[in-house]
Amino acid sequence: MSPSPVPPRPSPAPESASEPAPGRRVGLAVGHGPIHRAQRELQSRVFELAEGELPAARSWWVHGERRPRAARRASSVAVVRDGPNGVETLLRYRAGPTPLGSVAFPGGSLDASDEDGCPWFGPTAAQWSRVLGVGDHRLARRHLTGALRELYEETGILLAGPDRFSVASNPGGGEWQQARTALDRQEVSLPELMGRRGFGLRTDLLRAVGRWNSPHFSHRRFDTQYFAAAVPYGQEVSLLEGKGHWAEWLPARQVLAGRDTADVGEAIGRPDTVGRSLGRLTVPAVELLLERMAAAGSTVEFLMGLTVRGSVPEHTPELQGAPDGPEGGGFNLAVDLPGGQWARP
Known about the structure:
single chain; alpha+beta; Nucleoside Triphosphate Pyrophosphohydrolase; eight-stranded mixed sheet; four-stranded antiparallel sheet; 17 strands; globular
C-alpha cells in the first residue's frame, strides 16, 4: 500500500496576543537572526505499519489506550551520495522487532558519555539545541555526538577531523579498526577517542531533519532526532565483523519505484523481510526522506533543501484502522505534515 493523501487539516490558531500573527511564524536559523515564514496548513498522510509493530498495535486496539511507555532518546543519520541513477542512500537491516524499522538509516540509542566534552567544529551545542527544539544544550550535544557515534560504529563513516576543513581518511579499517571495535564494545567513548586522536566532531556536516516519536502503542518507544549528511570523500562503508547482516547503497528513486513490491526485502534475504513491501519494513520518517532524496537532482540539492529555519518539526504517528484477519493488515499510521514537498508522495 502506498502512502495516500487525505484532506488537509488546518493548523491551530495562536493562543495569545503575544504570539506571531496568524499565518506568520518566527524562528531562529543557526548563524542568522530572527526570520519569518508563512505557516502552512497541516496535511495528513497515511503509511503502512511495519510488520514488527503489529502485535503491539493489536494489543493497544484490543485492550484500549493506556499510558504510553517512556521513550528513549535516539539519533539516526541518513547518509547520501551522488550516483548514476540519482541520489543514493545507505540503508541497513535491523534484526528483531523494532519501532525504528527493520530497514532503517544508521542510528540508535544515546549513551550517557555522549554528553562528554570534546573538540567540536560547527554550530555550538546551544545553537543546535534551538534547531533540535530540545531547549537543553547538553541534550543537544548528546544527540549530535550520539548520531556521529552510531554512524561510525555501524558503517565506519566518521564525520570528524583534525580541523574544521578536514575529515579522517579511511577511518573504518586499518589502524582505526581496533578503536572502532572498542567503541562498539563501550570500552571507550567517542569524545575520549576523539581526544586521543586530536580530532574534533564535524557537526557542521550534519543537517537536522526532524524529531520523530514512536507511536504511543509501541512496546519500545524512541524519541529520535533524524539527521542527514553526505559521505565524505575517501571514506568507504564497512560493517564490523560479526555485527550487522546487510547494508547497501541504493538509489532513492529505485527504492520508491519498488515500494509496493518486496524488492528490498528480497535483497536482504532474511526470514522477516522476504515477501514484505517497504512499508512493512520501515517507518514513515525513512519513506519521507527517501521521497525528498528521489526528488532532488543531487546530494547538494537534497541537503540544501533541509536547511532549518527555526526548529525541526516534531511528529508522533497515530494508529488508525483495525486488525483485518490474523495478520492485522488493517492497521496503518497517520502523520500530520506541513505542506509543500514533505506532504507530497
